[in-house]
Amino acid sequence: MAEQHWREVEGLVLPQPVALHPALELVNTYSGWDGTHTSDYLVSYDHLAVLAGALDLLPAIDVRRLRRAARRQPEAATNALERACTVRAVIRRAVLDPADPEATSELTVATRSAATTVQLLPGTPARWWVPGIAPDDLDRPADAFAWAAADLVTRPDVTRVRTCPGRGCGWVFLDTSGRRRWCSMQWCGNRAKVRAHAARSRTPRPSGIG
Length: 210
Ligand SMILES: [Zn+2]
Prior knowledge:
Blueprint: E1 6-9, E2 12-15, H1 22-27, E3 30-31, E4 39-40, H2 45-54, H3 60-72, H4 74-96, H5 101-115, H6 140-153, E5 161-163, E6 172-174, H7 185-202
Antiparallel strand pairs: 1-2, 3-4, 5-6
């Protein structure tokens, strides 16, 4: 596991993938949902497209075409990025509370846009592996994430989505073992251990014990 929360992909800074599902990795481009401390990795359309490519939701050749299309249409790219941020918030609500009918119906609407370009391949998670399907449609990264999220919310293990309790973190991940508590033991887990240790050593022990 890497030592920091981020990694560099094609020269862009993106979050480390820790969530075990691409839809959750999109959610983790944002920290501070509780409003205490916010940070956002989706600072440009390029970041969004490269993230979708890095998570195998879009073929590399299409990511390159999308980035070129975004440079030609900066306003449309800004709108597509904003939509992706909306989809990101909807995914978070839908996976953390699958019983929330509003979030589920918003995700359903987002998925409809994806349905026009999705290519199903037998035995493969529903992703856009085939290059060249609507390669210049700037909504494709957000569509791909929405489709991936639809896959997750309709699986029984959506109940295994957890939120990291690390201070200022809030990243989400799949707890496949049933014992996973932290986004990463190395970051939030260790920090919590160090804090707990510091708190214990500040507490004076009664004489004669320990
Ligand atoms: Zn964390």
